[in-house]
Design goal:
Number of strands: 0
Largest sheet: none
Strand content: under 5%
Oligomer: single chain
Distance between the termini: 53 Å
Number of helices: 14
Structural class: mainly alpha
CATH topology: Tetracycline Repressor, domain 2
Number of domains: 1
Radius of gyration: 20 Å
CATH architecture: Orthogonal Bundle
CATH class: Mainly Alpha
Helix content: over 70%
Length: about 400
């Protein structure tokens, strides 16, 4: 791609702080609130899932991350397309194509996650039901997330805001808030109405096939599909480590229930910070080439973002205390988490910038690989962080 001259990085420090605290901070705060919807559902049903459907715990981190990755990458691609004038409205066929491509690119990684979990815990009727739940949820959630991605990318762009600063974090959080409740709902749906559950799964497959026929795949879409699918399949293998760790230490985490409530928020918020860094780097590289990263103003933007980390970390723990109380458990502030959270974020943001730069250097579109890769790494590091905190709290 030929470098394009853009007016990126002409703001002063006060303007950067204003953008960070008036645009990015509210978006991250909304993400945090959304995450606790899923976190509350997970905390309340954690023991049931661990006992009756443990395979879901093995694939849960990868499943949540996969959806955030797919549609986070879609948001990054659409931001670039908006800058280049390729997308003008939500009903454009380009949007439909991106939605069907996003749903399709998640299928192989989902199967990889399921097979890995079934190998670990055994192939059984429960494992088969989990597979159907995953397939049905992937399609219905994919439709919701796909067009949500279009909305939260196109409208901010029209209003003069930078979609990279809000789209990826919002869509990954929307993915989390939808994913866990949908999985739990489908479990109850299957247990109460087995025949209707099978019919619903078949209907979702038919809708996905119809969406493919309404799409208009071009060479650039095929290339993006191959890149995203390949990267996500590799990342799914990495996510198996997160899921296996979560399932293996589920008994320890269940004794510190606040951590199961915080788990989606920790993974998502760390991934959000890292994805903002990756998306910003990706857009700059695609529009202006690697010379844009030598501009000191790029690093000032990142530095302004880092000011939010202690605030988000404290709020994550503070809100979790009250959510845990609402579902019937006692909880308190965890100071090792509050102090360690900013360091975890800094490490993952640095990884996000590096991955975007590295993929661009090797002629791979960073829009397709940077966000998925860095959020997966964030999941692994976040899961290890949660397990470490759980062992500290229960003395295991």
């Amino acid at each position: 791609m030929l470098p394009v001259e853009v007016t990126v990085g002409t703001r002063g420090w006060r303007e950067r702080l204003k953008q960070t605290f008036l645009v990015t901070f509210p978006a991250l705060l909304l993400c945090l609130a959304l995450d606790f919807v899923g976190g509350g559902v997970l905390g309340k049903n954690f023991e049931m899932i661990a006992t009756s459907y443990p395979l879901l715990l093995v694939i849960l981190p990868g499943l949540s991350d996969l959806r955030g990755n797919v549609f986070g990458a879609m948001a990054s691609r659409m931001t670039t397309a908006l800058h280049l004038g390729k997308i003008r409205g939500i009903l454009d066929r380009e949007v439909t194509t991106n939605v069907s491509m996003a749903i399709g690119s998640s299928k192989i990684p989902l199967i990889v996650l399921w097979v890995a979990g079934a190998i670990k815990l055994g192939f059984s009727h429960s494992a088969f039901i989990v597979l159907l739940i995953v397939i049905a949820s992937a399609i219905v959630i994919g439709l919701l997330l796909g067009y949500s991605t279009a909305v939260i990318t196109i409208f901010p762009y029209r209003w003069g805001a930078d979609p990279d600063m809000i789209a990826a974090p919002l869509i990954t959080s929307v993915a989390d808030v939808i994913t866990i409740p949908t999985l739990v709902y489908l479990i109850f749906f299957y247990e109460d109405h087995e025949a209707a559950f099978y019919a619903f799964t078949a209907l979702m497959i038919v809708l996905f096939v119809l969406l493919i026929f309404l799409s208009d795949y071009k060479k650039e879409h095929v290339r993006a599909f191959k890149e995203v699918t390949g990267v996500l399949t590799i990342l799914a293998l990495i996510e198996i480590f997160s899921g296996s760790t979560l399932e293996s230490y589920s008994d320890v985490i269940s004794k510190a229930i606040i951590l199961s409530v915080m788990y989606p928020s920790i993974l998502d918020s760390v991934g959000n910070f890292a994805s903002i860094a990756a998306a910003t780097t990706s857009t700059r590289l695609n529009l202006s080439g690697k010379s844009a990263l030598r501009n000191r103003e790029f690093y000032l933007d990142v530095s302004a973002l880092l000011l939010l980390t202690p605030i988000i970390g404290f709020l994550t723990n503070y809100i979790a205390v009250h959510v845990t109380s609402l579902i019937g458990y006692h909880a308190a502030l965890i100071w090792p988490f509050i102090l360690g959270y900013p360091l975890l974020v800094v490490a993952n943001m640095a990884i996000g910038v590096f991955i975007a730069y590295l993929s661009h250097r090797f002629n791979i579109d960073p829009d397709n690989v940077a966000i998925p890769t860095v959020t997966t790494i964030s999941d692994v590091m976040g899961t290890l962080f949660v397990v470490l905190l759980a062992k500290m709290m229960v003395g295991a």
